[in-house]
Amino acid sequence: MKLKKTVSLILMLTCIIMSSAWCSDTRKTDKEQLAEVTQLATKRFVGSDYTYYDEGEYKQVKCTGVTVYPLYNENDVMKYFLLDFEPYGYAYVRSNIGMNNYVACVKVRGDYTLSEGWTWRRYYRNINDTGFDYNEDGEKYIDSHFKVAGIKDEKRYLLYYDGEISTGYIPAVKRGDKFLNLVSMTEYDPNNLYLHEPTGNVGFIGKHPYDL
Question: pTM of the entire structure?
Fold first, then answer.
């Protein structure tokens, strides 16, 4: 009896693994993904109210337009998107294309995951790298880190910071062989990490309720 149960379990696990491989998503080019995200974002947000988080309170504003920008990871692979809303506001999107989005041929998340924008303030790593310096009276922003920094035609990046103390995503642009962290407006070198690095309020939950 034990042998039969063991064999059945092995067969079931094998079927799950193989069916997950068979049910993989169709690959899409960067151009196709950008067009698809633009279409989805326009349909979902333009002409409707969208919600943003403002220091303990959820608020709504009617969206009159959206501009979508591709965002690249540290390997120069297009993996994310920035949604800049009109009259103000923003959101980030992660592409799940190429990831394993199925369990036993059941899709557990959509092709794109949304991270809604929060209001934010600049903060900084302190001089001794023992923590952060916050300015609670500093200017509060509701637009994206890129729009606030006045980024126009430069290639935009969203870098995953995996430090010893914390993790998070850094909106950034290239400066030589390093990056400019748009949260703190200070240099960021992914090959020479500090213990503390300011990150944006960006997070992706790979479940259907958070699909774009």
Answer: 0.83
Query: Phi first, then psi: what are they for 186, rounded to 5°?
Result: -125, 165
Q: Which residues have CB under 8 Å from 165's CB, separation 6+?
A: 195, 196
Burial of 128 (0-12, 13-18, 19+ CB in 10 A): exposed
In the chain, the percentage of residues whose pLDDT exceeds 90 is 71
Express each pLDDT in 149-161 by its tens digit. 999 999 999 999 9
Q: Is 128 helix (H, G, I), strand (E, B) or coil?
A: coil
Q: Which helix (H) or strand (E) holds 149?
A: none
* CA–CA gap between residue 20 and residue 161 (Å, rounded): 30
Residue 181 in tokens:
């962290």
CA distance 146 to 169: 14
